[in-house]
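Table S2 (continued). Query chain:
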Amino acid sequence: MKDLIDYLVKQLIEEEHHEIVVLEDEKNIEYKVYVDKEHIAKVIGKAGKTSKAIRTLVKACANGRDKNVSVYIEER
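Corresponding output:
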């Protein structure tokens, strides 16, 4: 799943401008995408449409797993 998120974000910005951190517990997996301030607008998109599309793809891939999957995009 981390590879999918990394691939999608790399299509928008260069690799050195983002970092993905995975937080996992018994019921949840959280992917936090930290993006440089000057590039965060590209990842979020107009009215949040790009970030919503990333979340939708990740949730579709995680369908059928026992854990809830969340993606957060934050500025670093």
